[in-house]
From TrEMBL:
Function as written in the Swiss-Prot or TrEMBL entry: Initiates the restart of stalled replication forks, which reloads the replicative helicase on sites other than the origin of replication. Recognizes and binds to abandoned replication forks and remodels them to uncover a helicase loading site. Promotes assembly of the primosome at these replication forks.
Organism of origin: Yeosuana aromativorans
Family: Belongs to the helicase family. PriA subfamily.
EC number from the UniProt entry: 5.6.2.4
Record-given protein name: Replication restart protein PriA
InterPro entries the record matches: DEAD/DEAH_box_helicase_dom (IPR011545), Helicase_ATP-bd (IPR014001), Helicase_C-like (IPR001650), P-loop_NTPase (IPR027417), PriA (IPR005259), PriA_3primeBD (IPR041222), PriA_3primeBD_sf (IPR042115), PriA_C (IPR041236)
Cofactor(s) demanded: Zn(2+)
Any Pfam family: PriA_C
Key words, A-Z: ATP-binding, DNA replication, DNA-binding, Helicase, Hydrolase, Isomerase, Metal-binding, Nucleotide-binding, Primosome, Zinc
Binding site for Zn(2+) 1: C463, C466, C503, C506
Amino acid sequence: AKDIHQILDEQPIVNAKQIQLWEWIASYYLCTMGDVMRAALPNAFILESETVIILNTNKTLNDSELKDDDFLVYEALHHQSSLKIHDIANILDKKNVLPVIKRLLDKDAVFVEEEIYEKYKPKLVRYVKLHSRFASEKALQTLLNDLKRAPKQSQVVLTLFSVSAKTKKPVKVSDLIDESDASHAIVKTLIDKSILEEYYIQTDRVQYSGDDNEVSKVLNEFQTIALQEIKESFKNQNIALLHGVTSSGKTEVYVKLIEDTLALGKQVLYLLPEIALTTQLVTRLQNYFGEQVAIYHSKYSSQERVEVWNHVLENNSKAQIVLGARSSIFLPFDNLGLIIVDEEHEQSFKQFDPAPRYHARDTAIVLANIHHSKTLLGSATPSLESYFNAQQNKYGLVEINMRYNNVLMPDIELVDIKDKHKRKLMKGHFSDRLIDDMTEALSEGQQIILFQNRRGFSPIVECNTCGHSPQCPNCDVSLTYHQYRDQLRCHYCGYHTVMLKNCSACGSVELDSKGFGTEQIEEEVKILFPDYKVARMDLDTTRGKYGYEKIITAFEQQEVDILVGTQMLTKGLDFRNVKLVGVLNADNMLNFPDFRAHERSFQLLLQVSGRAGRTDDRGKVLIQTYNPYHTILQQVSTNDYMGMYKEQMNERYNYKYPPIYKQIKITLKHKDYNKVDMGSIWYAKSLRQIFGDAILGPESPPIGRIRNQFHKNILIKIPKKQSLSKTKEAVIKVNNSFLSIKEFRSVKVILNVDNF
Ligand code: ADP
Ligand code: ZN
Ligand code: ZN
């Protein structure tokens, strides 16, 4: 035990329910409590310390015992409880103050201590008011008379007087300066003369300025039935899945449930995949719920996050509804009544790196249990996991099969580009079919969305003479050509270099690009449709805080006719005027080496299709593919979720994949290939001795080296009836023995429970 050094907070900033959740995360996802805390707590809560000098009140010195400098500091300490080194430097107006401190210490006059503080600083805004002695009209008249010779000063006083009479609110210095056209210096003079008084008010960094008071919409019959069914199901079960086709109006159903929860005096957590925290949904919810909506996601600064944290902690009126990305499950809720997981099928709810490798949807369900609250999962294309749970009656299941306003589901057509290539009916990556439909939509004043899964210009640059293609020096991948910057870039480690003029293997100038990304599509569109405005939405164009928002707004306001983008486009966006959606190539995602590739392609394609024709006219979707007879594409074109579900579940049964089997993926990393190779063989062998053929691997992943680290994967498949906690105990044992072997100690091991 150590002495208490300093009390930082009057009230704990973390509550017992959070600790309970965090302990669950650490044990379920096999990581440390420290890992969880690092993810949970905003950076600004991390403590810093600074050396301070404190007066020793047990010792009194005579002035004569102290030299000049020492005396000045000693005096100052009688007025201030502590002084920092730089305070002392200011007082003495010199840099090296250590001799002074040393002499004071020698005389026992002071202590040196470490003061600990949070990096979080409340935001203070500067205000001014007229000094109270000018409260009467007469005193004010006299003042203005006195200021006759100083017209600028009297202008400031008059402005302040009229602004505060008009608004009846405190006046910010910045507003006063704007209104009176005065300078900071004039205001300062008035403060120095005690005519004005300055003061500070703590203000939120995140300010909401919108028009609230919009009442929520009247539900149509399908929404009303769904709402009833959800409420009914909540009587017996804590979790319900709302499977409603795109644009069926799920959000409005959520809104009604939120209203009910608020009326009970309880908090609501509304989870969304990161990128979908668009102005669109935020605005919709803020219109209904005004200032009660708090927002929490990764583009917020850590100071802003602390502010939201504190509002939630205080359970105050500014955070009754938290709209957040996955990390918002860590907030200090006290009294949650409802958690909504919108777009619950989204992969981005799972954190890959670093630990905790948690899934926010699954963790949200645990959080809801802790609070004895309900969870509603919503999606037009539910994950197999959730739909399976609903089929097993673990969750309630509610469906909406009609779009709002009885708009028809979009007409989805598969375009065989293999055949079109043969018949030379392609212009670049556009089939004649797609060009025709685009031309028609544009001529009718409609907007178009074009989806391409890859960013950049082309993912592979290849020499036509020798076949060499430039690779990342740190990873086993080809570099992607980005035309806009004329660079070759690695999408795994960020490495970049200027585009080569010659092949680095044979010197030939005949470099060709293979495959295509969003940049190339954007360029082709500009050539095909020079009279229309094109924008691109991918990781490269949305980096800034408002990057994403700007593009969405421009498209919403129809300043842009054609929007080209990656899967960012698919997430819950609601545009009024999009008639046509084009998918340039559906094949690469279908062929992705992952057991979820088919499920995911189905979700992605239906979601992007769902952006078409959301208002009146039926939308049109064209999916270009080399393989129009692929079952997934057939299921997409007929909106056959059940067909997809049954077939994919069959495969998961047969090949022992989730949700039938649980799995833990173990990844070993090291810069020395031999080490990782030998280590992973040892590791897999030890696991096999316990689990037999439930172990797969070790295997090199498709990209065997990233950031100069070689990777090997081992997979454990766990039948539902096998105890997960016993399995994990065994894994931890193997892991500990592995790390105790000297030659493997430097190998990094990543345990990923429920890997995606
Ligand atoms: P989903 O989330 O299921 O894709 P949304 O909630 O975005 O669907 O609804 C689609 C569109 O229909 C939105 O523009 C929404 O404002 C509108 N809408 C949905 N329900 C209603 C309603 N009851 N009254 C009026 N408009 C509605
Ligand atoms: Zn070459
Ligand atoms: Zn790289």
